[in-house]
Every structure is written in structure tokens, then in C-alpha cells.
Amino acid sequence: MTRLTGRRILVVEDEALVAMLVEDALQDAGATIIGPVATVAEALALLEREMPDAAVLDLNLAGETSTPVADVLAARQVPFVVATGYGAEGLPSAHADVPVLAKPYDPDELTAALGRLWG
Q1: Is the distance from CB of 10 to CB of 26 less than 8 angstroms?
Q2: Which CATH class is domain 8-116?
Q3: What is the spatial distance between Cα 57 and Cα 39, in angstroms, rounded to a whole number?
Q4: Which segments of the chain have a pLDDT < 50?
């Protein structure tokens, strides 16, 4: 298992069960969770107050695209992983180089993808 000890990870996920599973996996890997939040507005408000080390970002939040959150993360040079059921083709071209986890994914895949963000 990839260790994320000391890393502060923002979780943006609108499905409560998935958010809980992500939170558990990240905590098991030693990360501190910021959120989880379920809407673009909540994520942007949280980013006004917090500076995460990385983020896990669901691309579709109850029909709303999370691209504005991705834009803020990229502008602040905060690495992130996109978790989506739509695959990489759903990514905006500005974020085409972001790692994508296809839902459903294994918690070890998530922690490994996050671990790779720091090399």
C-alpha cells in the first residue's frame, strides 16, 4: 500500500458512499482528509480557506462539471487525480495530462495514483 502520511488530500465527490470509501482508503494510507465536499461551490469555498497537497476530483457532481475546481487546483499547482465513470475522454483539454481513475476503482489504485503525483 502506498503511504500518504502527512499529505492533506481534498476529496470532491457527490456520491456519499464513494466519498466514505475514498476517505477510508486515504486515512488508512495516513493522509489527512479535507472535505469531502459534494458540489463545485463547496469545493471552491473550501479552497479559499485550505491549501491541500493534492485532490481527488469527481468529474461529474450531480450533473455539474467540476472543471472550475480543476482550474483552481491547476492554477495553484496542486496536483490532482480525476475519478470518473466517463473515462479520460470526459476531461477538458486543459487537463488532458491529469491522471484518471475509472470508476469503480480499487482503493489501492487510488493511493498508488496519488503517490505517483509526487514521484
Answers
A1: no
A2: alpha beta
A3: 11
A4: none
